[in-house]
Amino acid sequence: MSAISIGQAVVLGAVEGVTEFLPVSSTGHLKIVEGLMGIPVDDDAVIGFSAVIQVGAIAAVLVYFSKDIARIMSAWVRGLRDREERYHHDYKFAWWVICATVPIVLVGLAAKPLIKGPLASLWVVAGSLIVGSGVMWVADRTGRHKRGEDDTSFKDAMLVGGSQILALLFPGFSRSGATMSTALLLDLDRVAATRLSFFLGIPALTGAGLYELKDALGTGAGAAPLAAGTLVSFAVAYASIAWLLKFVAKHSFNAFVIYRIVIGVLLFGLLGAGVLQS
């Protein structure tokens, strides 16, 4: 019998799609919803399921930014053959994304027992939601928002990519929140910070999903729930990406900061009252 039903998979896929690229922590929201539905958040099949349905959200990024990705990959391939092409920003950016993914891969492999163990606690999620809100608020207030996407550098990519480790170790901090906040602290504007977060998330999240696939299928998650959750995640994430890019072009991150604090406090309350088990 599957550890997750198709109905639960659809709900979780929708939650993943909405929250993966918003700076509110998809992992945190998935764990909260799983807890409310009585799904064990520390079960190998459930952890694997959550990682796999992220691939649906990543597929949405690939489709939404297909022209940008094709341009960057084309420049990278040309640069491998032609020295002159290596001065092109797109060629360098492709390498930056690759290099910026290495830290999170190494930490993810080394800290897997902690990530699947003590750090998977909903208490950690609640605390990380609130702490991450403070970081985001400071970043949005102090960042000068003066640099665009074409102004990014190798240093920017490494710092922003490395910040994904915070979300990996502390579910609730939010990968998008960590990367966007770091980019804002580096004085990128909100749209550039958001787009950089998207591109840096592609290899890290895709790799995590593929790595967990064997565990998700082998421990009872079920192929049908995985397919349903991934498809729903794709559709909802695509709509979320389009909305977020329009939103950040005209608004600050204050709404996300307030929302995260409310959810974090609510989660602490539910845990303290025994409604949810950590």
Automatic annotation (TrEMBL):
MF GO annotations: undecaprenyl-diphosphatase activity
A Pfam family that the UniProt record links to this protein: BacA
Enzyme class, broadest EC rank: hydrolase
Cellular component aspect of the GO annotation: plasma membrane
A GO BP entry: regulation of cell shape
Keyword annotations from UniProtKB, A to Z: Antibiotic resistance, Cell membrane, Cell shape, Cell wall biogenesis/degradation, Hydrolase, Membrane, Peptidoglycan synthesis, Transmembrane, Transmembrane helix
Presence of the UniProt keyword Transmembrane in the record: yes
Localization per Swiss-Prot or TrEMBL: Cell membrane
EC number: 3.6.1.27
Domain of life, source organism: Bacteria
Topology of the protein relative to the lipid bilayer: Multi-pass membrane protein
Segments passing through the bilayer: 45-65, 93-115, 121-139, 192-211, 223-245, 257-276
InterPro entries: UppP (IPR003824)
Reactions mediated catalytically: di-trans,octa-cis-undecaprenyl diphosphate + H2O = di-trans,octa-cis-undecaprenyl phosphate + phosphate + H(+)
Role of this protein: Catalyzes the dephosphorylation of undecaprenyl diphosphate (UPP). Confers resistance to bacitracin.
Cited PANTHER family: UNDECAPRENYL-DIPHOSPHATASE
Similarity remark: Belongs to the UppP family.
Misc: Bacitracin is thought to be involved in the inhibition of peptidoglycan synthesis by sequestering undecaprenyl diphosphate, thereby reducing the pool of lipid carrier available.
Listed HAMAP family: Undec_diphosphatase
NCBIfam families the UniProt entry points to: PRK00281.2-1, undec_PP_bacA
Protein name: Undecaprenyl-diphosphatase
Biological source species: Streptomyces parvulus
Biological classification of the source: Bacteria, Bacillati, Actinomycetota, Actinomycetes, Kitasatosporales
